[in-house]
Amino acid sequence: MIKILGRADSINVRKVLWLCDELNIAYEREDWGRGFQSPQAPEFVKLNPNATIPVIIDGDFVLWQSNSIIRYLSNAYAGQNLYPADAKQRAIIDQWIDWQGIELNNSWTYALMNLFRHSPDYQDPKLVEKSIQAWSKMMKMVEQQLEKTGAYITSEHFSLADIVIGLSVQRWYLTPFDKPDYPQVKRYYELLSQREAYLRWGNNGQN
The GST C-terminal domain covers which part of the protein (predicted)? Predict the structure, then answer.
């Protein structure tokens, strides 16, 4: 049984929890992060010098960084159906996982912190609008990719990339602002919502 350190309402922790449900990986979870035990605590920093969640402990193996964690778990716990060994198939999945972490994730930060989290540090209307425009541009890329595949983000098959993109789609819909009409993204959201694990960790009202 693996141990997952991180609060269950964190989008990055939910990546790991969703994957564990998809692969039937047994785990126990401890609450760390905002509102719970501080990741700045010395015992946590020993595990992750970044002081961020999630962290997993698998026997004597410790790993941090959510996208690295889901790749490791897919490799270690028979997740080849989600993260195939074929180099080209895997590269396309990695492409979208990394794009989410670098491009999509960075586009929404200011808008999310203003519109949903109501942070006093994110109150510049011009920067909110700039973030919304950047986020909408990134989501248009998702729309165009889904038009090509007709199903999931990389192909007709559900993959590891859909875990990170699927949670991002949930965040898109829950953050309150006027959005472009992206019918393929809506269809994708409804398709993912047929999965029990997505209803638990994605389409569950958490942003």
Answer: 86-207
